[in-house]
Give the backbone structure.
Amino acid sequence: MPDTTFPSTIDHELLGTLRVPTFEDVAAAADRLAPHVRRTMLLRSPALDERAGAPIWLKLENLQVTGSFKARGAFNALLTMDAAQRKRGVVAYSTGNHGQAVAWASRCLGVPATIVMPVDAPENKVDKALRHGAKVVRYDRLRESREEIGMRLMAESGASLLPPGDHPDVLAAQGTLALEALQDLPADARDTLGLFAMPCGGGGMAAGCSLVLRKLAPNARIVAVEPSEYDDTVRSLASGKRESNRAGATTLCDALQAATPAELPYAINRRSLSAAVSVTDAEVSAAIRFALEELRVVVEPGGAVALAALLAGHLSADGRDAIIVLSGGNIDLPLLRQITLN
């Protein structure tokens, strides 16, 4: 069970050299980001409400700048750097969405960016990072360490590392999507919100959103959803320590292929999450088809896992209002065709 003393027990802790962000950091990030990112809409669907037996509000981060929620964290982190840091540039490692976001934010602010991406990252995500002017360095995730490559590149250039999870300004900015969603809910739905569910890779979005939800919607269940082959947060919450995924595991959800929960997000999530659940690739594919056919929106596999959990019965709204995050829409067209034809 989550530690009910959250967040007071962790707000001002230091996790190694990492500062743990607070709700106030999320609110500051929202003000900072307002001119730069989209305030994505909440969508209701009668078909989905009927399937779930409850009012379901979808937070459409698949319509965010760069096609995923990652734009929030990347831009906020660059805005909080000083001019000298930005001049030296940034290095990021990513399976795709974080890399695209860093490349886009860096182009907007005139910051040199190098993105370390696996050789099996979707080519549409690699191409978009390149089009934003970033340098892309490819690596083999089975034989090479992206962290070691990133450290070498930093030593060579003096650039700053901009990780997808273990960065307080990235994490705080990811929480702004929950802040928006709560602000945009009707008052009666906000007061009775029963569930907030979101995709989970390294855990940064879950942790950032938790900072908001534990403050403004303390009675809502907060649930992270993972692919079944990358269920490290599910197992970490059960064991009480950070667990790793099996080497060579595969999933359609390329955006959620974290090796283990990121350290800073896990320090928050182990206290704040109500639960974590996992879904199969077949359930994810069904959710993508549902989103396209019933909602007329395109969602990538990693962005669809929370919707998949709801549709497959792994999550229940218990008849109360629920927010489900669709976190990204960057799906390769050949994969989309394959999923929709099956």
